[in-house]
Amino acid sequence: MLQRLQLYSHKLQFYYIFSMATFTKFQKLLVSASTIGGATFYYINSINKDRVHNSWTTDFKPSTKWDDNWDFRAPPSLIHPRKLNSEKDENVINEQLELMKSTATRHIILIRHGQYHIEGKSDEQRILTKLGRNQAEYAGKRLKELDFPYTDIIKSTMSRAQETGTIIAKFLPNIPVTECNLIREGAPIPPEPPVGHWKPGVHFYEDGARIEAAFRKYFHRADPSQEKDSYTLLVCHANVIRYFVCRALQFPPEAWLRLSLNHASLTWISITPSGRVILRTLGDSGHMPANIITSQ
């Protein structure tokens, strides 16, 4: 009987020691799990913080997305829509789309006229000042130095642009020169914020349609038949150029007055075969000495 009691006591001690050891291991596991869980929680929180930070900086959703067919010259809009009844029809459509794709880039360089006699009562009196002619000379020299394969020079029919274009053309012989009434100075659209002085709506109504027509005439991707990149020079005016920039970049056009352009400055816009628009320079005046740069 005594032996049985001793044996039972030894078993109890063994179970106690084993359970304590097991409990200690379980405690260690709990501590380890807690540590790992805490680290995981901290890591997940860190990721979430980064994600939140990214949502403030890189995960921006534009209110208005880029319109790929802004010039109505994307290939799908140039072919007659048809119902696809077979794989053969689909192949025909794909062949037509390939034929309608542009392969060249159109570069449009807009030059504002030089300084002019702003006090003139008529267009004939608002000719270039001596400084304005000097500015036009520098613009011509710069365009010559760039040595692009210019396609043509198009001048506004207003006196100050005519004179500026004529001076520039001396540096670019053998480049065809034409005139265009559409790019005369005017009020393209009521600006936002509004200007301090009042301007009758009739001016925006008349000038706006004309300047918009000029934009549609000169700003579009290359025709499929155009094989080489082209460089067109438009010699015109500040309001016209600023409106063109806003329209080309699909910015709100009423923001045009927020931009400023110096006399005889160069603004360079490229239109790629896909219809994407690149503003390479805006009002570049680096070709002129600082002491002859003016804007008014």
Count of DSSP H/I helices: 6
CATH class descriptor name of the largest domain: Alpha Beta
Distance between the termini: 120 Å
Q: Provide the residue-averaged pLDDT.
A: 85
Question: What is the overall shape?
Answer: globular
From the alpha carbons, calculate the radius of gyration and give it in angstroms. 35 Å
Biggest β-sheet strands, sense, barrel: 6 strands, mixed
The fold-level CATH name of the largest domain is: Rossmann fold
- Which bin fits the share of residues in helices? 40-55%
| Shape-level CATH architecture of the largest domain | 3-Layer(aba) Sandwich
Please provide the ordered H/E string of secondary-structure elements: HHEHEHEHEHEE
Low-confidence stretches: 14-31, 33-37, 39-47
Number of strands: 6
Structural class: alpha/beta
Q: Spatial order of the strands in the main sheet? A: 3-2-4-1-5-6
Kindly report the name of the CATH homologous superfamily of the largest domain: Phosphoglycerate mutase-like
Pfam families: His_Phos_1 (PF00300)
Family: Belongs to the phosphoglycerate mutase family. BPG-dependent PGAM subfamily.
Catalytic activity: O-phospho-L-threonyl-[protein] + H2O = L-threonyl-[protein] + phosphate; O-phospho-L-seryl-[protein] + H2O = L-seryl-[protein] + phosphate
InterPro entries: His_Pase_superF_clade-1, His_PPase_superfam, Mito_Ser/Thr_phosphatase
